[in-house]
Amino acid sequence: MKRFLWLIACLAWLPVAHAIDGTQILQKVDRNLEPESYESYRQLTDIQPDGAKKISVLYTMKKGRDRLVALFLAPASDKGRVTLRLGDNMWLYIPDVGRSIRITSLQSVTGSVFNNADILRIDYSAEYDVEAAEEQKDAYLLSLKAKSGEVAYDKLKMRVDKQAILPLSIECYAASGLLIKTLRFRDIKDFGGGIRRPATLETDSPLQKGYKSIMQWSGLKARTFPDEIFTLNYLPRVEELRK
To answer: How far from 104 is each of 14, 59, 115, 150, CA to CA, in Å?
Structure first.
């Protein structure tokens, strides 16, 4: 009996292992990357194996967890085109024909290694559930599973900086387990207004040998928008919103 009581006393002094709340970490990642409602400018640089480059510039507006509009400012061939995302649904408005067409998450409106899901990204927590969370020395490793079959990637492995609660890298997988691409976050920048996040996102894919794409943010700031902006009828007027 005494030995039993001694063991209980010893166990009471052992450090308690706290469970990691992966869902809470993922929600913090979303808010640290951007406000819930914001505007920003992005430059997408697509680099081909021979070194040739295509540069696209987009003005982007997001509201809530799953509504986003992006207006093309460059190149000249794409200027005035607008993409709209509402949850899993995406459209591309083409001003020359005055109509919107449906697009899919795995397509790319820029011909980039970034697909439409990357370019029109909504909150990760809106698309994925946390299956597992592991604490490493300087990072958390989150294993994410798509909430529906409409999501571009079936699974993600996200490494999150423990101090900043910002992603370091994300491996994107198909349902078969095939690695589709890796996203790498670089250059943490203070955008003001309490927003401090990576200004650069780079990606490459084992399925597109020699190709590389880079996304760079500027002018990221909180801004509120009326709901009507995130509708098909408003897409021809998106240019009016730029200040």
So the answer is: 52, 20, 9, 9
Q: Round to whole Å and give the CA distance between 94 and 79.
A: 9
The answer to the question of residue 243 being in a domain is no
Inside any domain, residue 242: no
pLDDT, tens digit, for every residue of 121-149? Answer: 999 999 999 999 999 999 999 999 999 98
Longest CA–CA span in the chain (Å) reads: 86
Residues in the chain: 243
Q: What total number of domains does the chain contain?
A: 1
Please report, to the nearest 10 degrees, the dihedral formed by the alpha carbons of residues 219, 102, 30, 130 taken in order: -160
| Domain containing residue 210 | 19-237
CA distances from 88 to 104, 129, 144, 151, 181 (A): 9, 15, 17, 7, 20
Residue 190's pLDDT band (boundaries 50, 70, 90)?
A: very high
Whether 8 maps to a domain, the answer reads: no
Q: Is the pTM of this model over 0.70?
A: yes
CATH number at residue 144: 2.50.20.10
pLDDT level of residue 242 (50, 70, 90 thresholds):
confident
- The answer to whether residue 9 is domain-embedded is no
